[in-house]
Specification:
CATH architecture of the largest domain: 3-Layer(aba) Sandwich
Helix content: 25-40%
GO cellular component, one term: plasma membrane
Main location: membrane
CATH topology of the largest domain: Rossmann fold
Keywords: Antibiotic resistance, ATP-binding, Cell membrane, Membrane, Nucleotide-binding, Translocase, Transport
CATH superfamily of the largest domain: P-loop containing nucleotide triphosphate hydrolases
Order of helices and strands: EEEHEHEHHHEHEHEEHEHEEHEH
Number of strands: 13
Distance between the termini: 31 Å
GO molecular function, one term: ATP binding
Oligomer: single chain
Family: Belongs to the ABC transporter superfamily.
Length: 305
């Protein structure tokens, strides 16, 4: 569906994407994970045929976006990072007018709008103005609008940013349904739980480069441990306590607000912490996550930027 080799994007003297290789297979959910400024959105805009590449090779749906942009865009669905719905129109009109841009007849767009309103759980809100919808509802409408042309490939840029946990889970369910229907999805996110839940494969980007690639489980197995012990100490005791823990487990990360100890048995690690005379204010044993992968690869948490 997408094939990039040595893909580069520059904005003046700034190199946002630095020679990356990407391959997206039909029917999968593929993710770009990384902090703000990593180059995710710039890559998505090149795949979406709205930003020309500076260098390298790129094929989307087997075609060159620079010479076949309109033909490729007709087969894409795009969910931008910020909702760009028309607040002056009703919910249904946003779908019907967008469908007309793709050359669908009035009868076809009416039927399609009805189908998509049901999919987005907005059937009863069709006559309402967009400005009356909640943030989660507007996001669902934006996704519904991106499906009006029955796209083969759906691009989603930070699809759940700013939404509450309940709205995020509703959107995840909609994306799972699209995948089950055979739509290929590419998404960018800086939420590690979202990437773990949705992506079959993903790349971790940092500073315009790909620093790791694989399934979420593969990346966690490769770059983290089965369990992680999180420790928080009183203000003023953090650095000294971290020094006394050094040597426990396979690896230790001292963050500004907590100390992470990596190993396969978190409870055993906690017992060893107490045996050294340390009394953390709080402790938590959890499984390894993609955030631990990113911390290992880049030296900082995903939320640092």
């Amino acid at each position: 569906m997408v094939r990039a080799r040595g893909l580069v994007k520059r904005f003046g003297d700034v190199e946002a994407v630095r020679g990356i290789d990407v391959e997206v297979r039909r029917g999968e959910v593929f993710g770009f994970l990384g902090p703000n400024g990593a180059g995710k959105s710039s890559t998505m805009r090149m795949i979406g045929c709205v930003s020309p590449r500076t260098g390298g090779e790129l094929r989307v749906l087997g075609q060159d976006p620079e010479s076949a942009g309109p033909r490729v865009r007709a087969r894409l669905g795009v969910v931008p990072q910020q909702d760009n719905l028309d607040a002056e129109l009703t919910v249904r009109q946003n779908l019907e007018i967008y469908g007309r841009y793709f050359g669908l007849s009035r009868a076809a767009v009416r039927d399609k709008a009805t189908e998509l309103l049901e999919f987005a759980q907005l059937a009863e809100r069709g006559p309402d103005r967009v400005e009356s919808l909640s943030g989660g509802m507007q996001r669902r409408l934006t996704i519904a609008r991106s499906l009006v042309n029955d796209p083969e490939l759906l691009l989603l840029d930070e699809p759940t940013t700013g939404l509450d946990p309940q709205a995020r889970h509703v959107l995840w369910d909609k994306l799972f349904r699209l995948k089950s229907a055979g739509v290929t999805l590419i998404l960018t996110t800086h939420y590690m739980d979202e990437a773990e839940q949705l992506c079959d494969r993903l790349v971790v980007m940092d500073d315009g480069r790909i620093v790791a690639e694989g399934s979420p489980a593969e990346l966690i197995a490769r770059h983290s441990t089965r369990e992680v012990l999180e420790l928080r100490f009183r203000i003023g005791e953090h650095d000294a306590s971290a020094g006394r823990i050094d040597g426990l487990g396979e690896r230790l990360e001292a963050l500004p607000d907590r100390v992470l100890v990596y190993g396969d048995d978190g409870e055993s690690l906690l017992e060893q912490v107490y045996s050294r005379g340390l009394r953390p204010e709080s402790s938590l044993v959890r499984r390894g996550t993609l955030e631990d992968v990113f911390l290992r690869l880049t030296g900082r948490a995903l939320v640092d930027r």
